[in-house]
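Reopening this one. Same input as before:
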Amino acid sequence: MANSSAILDWCIVRLGEDHNWWVDEVSDPVRWDTDGLSIIDPRQASHLIDLCEPLRDYGFDQDLFEAAFIPFRIEKEAGKARIRLKRVKDSVFDSEEKLFVLADVVDDENGPFADLLDHITRCRVKLLNDVFKFEAKLTVDEVEEELREEQNASFIEGKAVHVFDELCSILDYTPAGFDEDEDEGDRTPASEDDAEIDDADLPAVDDEDEEAIKGDASLKWDEDEEDKDDDDKPKSEGDDDEEEDSDDEDDDENKPAKKKTAPKKPAPSKPAPKKGR
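Same output, byte for byte:
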């Protein structure tokens, strides 16, 4: 460990409103300033280790990670949402105990944590240049400048940047316009066209299935909706007149037809009497 952290033996941390842990008191207040001093909890430490795994193929040095942090274990509660941590010598990578880790930021420009930030940034840039085919290779300076602008924006707003967020901003960094998928080897530039579905990707429909779909009454809601819309449309005066004429014709058709009586046949006339000779 660095000499600047040799005297640090314990610290008291509190759970902030942002659900991150922040340092309230330390055993070495002379060297350590607790104003805005953050600490990584066991869950966050495990996540950072997972993020560093892909960097091993690009020169990641585990020893630099170990040297940049001071491990602590939970000793006891120290009030509401506050706990006292005791320093240990366990390895962050190998320990079975859940450990908090405090970044060694006594010398924030040339100390072990500053060295770690520079190291993982270089490893991340190598990974991105290997994964994506940029027109011009990505450089460390470009990444650092972009991340520095984001941090400065937070400082201007009066927000303290938690060390976990600072590390994740590097380990998760991807240039704008590109998307890094979870599956290794399947990382492609992101574009709006990715969300569109090509007709060639849709399953083909057999002729028999298509005829069955057409004949399915449950799938004819479009026509029903159109008929309903036609009924809801306002009607003009001419339409009303035509409708009234149609109603009159319907009424005439619905009236019972009058019975037609057959004309009476004339009574047969009696034969005239024969004249006598």
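So the earlier flakiness isn't reproducible anymore. For the record, The radius of gyration is 43 Å.
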